[in-house]
Amino acid sequence: MQHVRMSGMAAFLVAMAAFSSGAGPRAYAQHDMSQETGPPKYLYLSNAELKPGHSSEFAKLESEEIDALRAAKIPGHYFGMWSITGNTDRVLFFRGFDSYADLQKVHDETVGNATVEAVVSKDNAAEGLISVVHHGSIYEYQKDLSLNPPASLENMRFMEIELFDVNPGQEGAFEHLAKEYKKAYESSLPAANWAIFQKALGKGSGTTYILVVPLKSLGDVDTMHANDKTFTDKAGPDLLALLRAQGTTIIKSEETDLYAMGAKISYVPDKWLTDSPDFWGKK
Q: How confident is the model over 25-39, as pLDDT tens digits?
């Protein structure tokens, strides 16, 4: 897989604003992560900002919840990530689902299991003492704005996430601009890949977008940097100048951050544990 840094898009696509998280039950995902099906229709994103020095305690509490979920064979899966840049006390969770009915089904199974609910309630109370804030939000996958997203995240170990806060009323212009960048990348670096999601529920809904680039290693970031010049050379200065000029009137703010997958805070399919015991199977 060829990874391409979005710095050519930098004037247009990025902004790590309202990543959210809830202190409620974590097992909301119904999208089958064990299958190579591509991005889910929806993402439930939860963001916990921890008090400094409490990451190990948080990971232990999360691990207890995961053990309870796995023992009860709760179907919803998710993965957690530790922030490398930006607020390094942030923990981000991704949970995919394909319909709101599926979201409710997994939620009901979780809270309907007395053993799991007891563990989750106890650990959420403990996490509340070591957390600064929790936020939760739902994003919807934008297929027309995405390019060659990976079918499975099983072998990914890091993620670059760009978040865009779009000026109100400029959503259509943003999506048009995203499609123009997509065309430019398809013609200059066709192996580039990313997935774009638009916030559907939560603070900034409608005007917040995230661009997600999964990475197998941090060495992929070096590849993305190296590909910057290829993209700018092939796209040409006139096109880039035009796109950047448009972006300055459409984008209110933007940010890009790196995250590391956290095996201890991820409830992944059994297949992942079997295929990659050295990573996903670590305790």
A: 333 334 555 555 679
219, two tokens: 């060495």
Q: How many CB atoms lie within 10 A of CB 267?
A: 24
Question: Total structural domains in the chain?
Answer: 1
CATH number at residue 170: 3.30.70.100
pTM for this one?
A: 0.85
Tell me if 130 is assigned to some domain: no
